[in-house]
Amino acid sequence: MKQVVQNYKSGELALLDVPVPGCKPGGVLVRSAYSLISTGTELMKVSEAGMSMVGKARSRPDQVAKVMQSVATNGVPATYRKVMGKLDSYTPLGYSLCGVVEQVGPGIDDVKVGDLVACAGNEHALHAELNWVPKNLYTPVPDGLAPRHAAFGTVGSIAMQGVRQGEPQLGEVALVIGLGLIGQLVAQLLTASGVRVVGADPDPARCELAERLGAAACGDPASAAVEAAVAELTDGHGVDQVYLAAGGGSNQPVELAARLARDRGRVVDIGKCRLDLPWNAYYEKELDVRFSRSYGPGRYDPAYELEGRDYPIGYVRWTERRNLACFLDLLARDRVDVEPLISHVADFDDAVGTYQRLKDGELKAVAVLFRYPGPAEDQAGQEVPAAPAEVTVPAVRRGGTAPAPARSAHAPVRVAFAGAGNYATSMLLPHLAQRDGVELSTVVTTTALSAANAKRKFGFAEASTDLDAVLDDKSIDAVFVVTRHSSHAELTRRALLAGKAVFVEKPLALSEDELAGVLAAVEESGNDRLQVGFNRRFAPLLQEAKQRFGARTGPANLRYLVNAGRLQHGSWYLQQGTEGSRFTGEGGHFIDTASWLLDADPVSVYATAAPGNEDLHVVLRYPDGSTATISYVTTGAPGFPKETLDLVADGKVLRFDDFVRASLYSDGGAGGRKRWVSSRLPKARDKGQNAELAAFIRAVRSGGPMPVPLESLVATTAATLAVPAGLAGGAPVTLARAR
Description:
Mean pLDDT: 88
Number of strands: 34
Radius of gyration: 30 Å
Structural class: alpha/beta
CATH topology of the largest domain: Quinone Oxidoreductase, Chain A, domain 1
Shape: globular
Largest sheet: 10 strands, mixed
CATH class of the largest domain: Alpha Beta
Strand order of the largest sheet: 19-34-27-28-29-26-30-31-32-33
Strand content: 15-25%
Helix content: 25-40%
CATH superfamily of the largest domain: Medium-chain alcohol dehydrogenases, catalytic domain
CATH architecture of the largest domain: Alpha-Beta Complex
Number of helices: 24
């Protein structure tokens, strides 16, 4: 088998062929699926190994003291041979992984062959294809938790032990200094515990990431922003706890801790930073300085780690293994999110190159995973692909017959709204309120006041919090679902079963199961009167541009840049655990636009993400060989247009600039050239909402086909859902049509 090793004398890193470890009693043999590089601890070791002997001595004065003691006891020659022999040998790297139990040793009865486990220990959870792991250093992975996420278990336990040492209480405020991997996890654990977090790190990307994952405010420790945030959140008293998760030789972290902690606050050292405590500052506030030792009680105790002797829970509530299991449970329940921390996933064969790129600064990362060859396995021991290779586009089946209800051509279309948030009140209701032949019947919201406001402003006949009454009202023709993303599929399903025409804002669904539930309602009721709010294809300028481009004879290349920008802190769009990722919520717009321009539905999706932020790139492939690349970025300049696209085919180039201007270049035949440029629109950008609503109301009134075929809505939704699957697997995802 192969294992990552390092020679501490020469600094050499190697992927070495070594024997497979034996499966000893009291442990299990685990085949690695993913292992996590600790970008702090491991890179520090790698960096130290590359130093001169003098540099090594300066970085480890504790070891120098041991050497001097050995010289006094054994003499220089013997000590020299001992030290050189130890330095000039291969040492392992790694201590956090997830893998599949391949063999069970005697005395083990809590797991079986094929089980997925998370493993810990710098002697037992190494970057190696196989590891023997003693009982107290592994724990089963909960059902449904991805192996790549379970690989964070050990590092998560380190962060968790640090938080436990701080003894946080509900409503307190904490300062986390250093927002690397450990700091990011500490911040999330504190937030999950009801503590408001201020983060300090000189890297703006890490600060932005921590805020996106729940921190109240973050900034450069050298700036005034952190101090101002602490003052605001604590009414000037200072934070209750400070967590030192930084490394390096600067004394700034402990000085900042003293300045921003409250009287008798707690300072917890988790990382390895300089600790020259300013005596006066710590004495005057009587600060409680605590150390967090690795994964928890049991660490460095051979009886616990190697012999499997557990500590009684009544005396030691949280041990290494219990911390590990607790962290995995939080991951499985979406209380902690490690996916945004993954900057890079490298094949294990590229381990040496990956370390070198990290050391050289070429690869800037919060967390890096090694992916091992062979299939990963789920908790039941069934083989599953290491990366999702296929997402099914469900077939649309219309069971029975449910024709559109007969209605007078002169009768108004009576509509109800479920939800009256910002988008509904700014982009939909203003158009409907002034449209002839539309009667705003009832607005339903979860809070009475928002319904009353919408009724007053737009002229609804009724305001209510009772959706069932609306669905039971036979006089209502159509229901608009404009609630938060997590409720779209269920409300759409209920409205379809009630026989209503449904207009639902994107996304239609957040999962394949939700999409299947909507289509089951179509099949059960025979009601396919559904429209999703993909409004771009209705934009007048985009429609004119497509018409001028004309029919294609060959495949096309489409490039779509979406300069989405950053969201404000606290936006519910950031609640990925319940509302889906930002692209899942908005990406359907751009996939639908591309598919409409190319007159086809995609057959595969490839997605890749930029390290450390939400920027991602989605490549869609179409049946005729056409491709569409959607770059969805959040780090661009806010003054640049939000949406620009280029369509290239058959000697023509269409350029579309943010619903303001479009231009078309073509060869014109016989060597001639033609150019069309639209006139600049005199008013605000028209993204098609008004025309989309008009088409929907016409279809409801006439009983004719809905504006967009249901099959197209389903294909776009399936393609959107394939993006996170593609990001997780790092490979193209086939969109297989169900029969």
